[in-house]
Amino acid sequence: MTPWVKRLVFANIAVYLLQMSLPGITRAFALVPALLLVRPWTIITYMFAHSTFGLTHILFNMFALYIFGPRVEMRLGEKHFIRMYLIAGVTGGLLSLFFTPFASIVGASGAVFGVQLAFAMYYPRERIYIWGVIPVEARLLVILMTAMTLYGGFKGGGGVAHFAHLGGYIGAFLYLKWAEKRSPSKQWEAKLAGPPPSKIPLGDWRSVDLARVHEVNRDEVQRILQKIEQQGEGSLSAQERVFLGHFVPTRS
């Protein structure tokens, strides 16, 4: 297991054992969305607590984290992984505020669903074997889980925090898109691309005197001027604006 996946699994197990020893911990850690302002810590603690009525709840979440988490953490790096995990859990709780405000919610499902979405975004054609038998591509699994979440949520819930799951998807998606735009590779691409054409000053192109333009450049300058006349300044590319700018007379 990768570092943060290991820490999260151990943390969830430790809290579960604490819940079994001190039942009041579950009530203290549970998120009731409508009471978030008076119990603000629960937006974090709820995702480390689980139902104590059997092991199914925590086992399913930790198994899913074990399956999807390591590759996502290796892809994102430790810092981005834990941020995405926590944000997915928080948005899961916040979305529940609008649909199930008085439900008592515990479980890492929203955060784990966020990890699952990240896995599907990075490895969309990777096959996941449901019950170890049925192969489903990761991208299709997310679509199926979203459909089931929406159906279960609007049908009545059945004791499952469906909207926390959906909120986990939303939070992870938004964070990954934000992180992608801020990645060094994207910033380097933007730097290479330069400013958008509209940010490059064109000057008074009407004052260009073709007779004073060298014959090597005259045809190209004339073509650009005609393009402006026919299609407007907004039609020029960054390269055309820079090129034409060399022939616009400067004012002293």
Description:
It is a single chain. It contains eleven helices and two strands; from the N terminus they run ααααααββααααα. The protein is mostly helical. The protein has two domains: 3-189, Up-down Bundle (Rhomboid-like fold), CATH 1.20.1540; 197-245, no CATH class. A two-stranded antiparallel sheet has the order 1-2. A hairpin with a 3-residue loop joins β1 and β2. α7 (138-155) crosses α8. The longest helix has 22 residues, at 78-99.
CATH architecture of the largest domain: Up-down Bundle
Task: Report the C-alpha radius of gyration, rounded.
Answer: 27 Å
Number of strands: 2
Give the low-confidence spans.
Answer: none
Quickly describe the structure.
This protein is mainly α. It is built from eleven helices and two strands, in the order ααααααββααααα.
Topology, element by element:
Blueprint: H1 3-21, H2 24-29, H3 42-45, H4 56-76, H5 78-99, H6 109-122, E1 127-130, E2 134-137, H7 138-155, H8 162-181, H9 184-193, H10 215-231, H11 238-245
Antiparallel strand pairs: 1-2
Any descriptors?
two-stranded antiparallel sheet; 63% helix; mainly alpha; 2 strands; 252 residues; elongated; Rhomboid-like fold
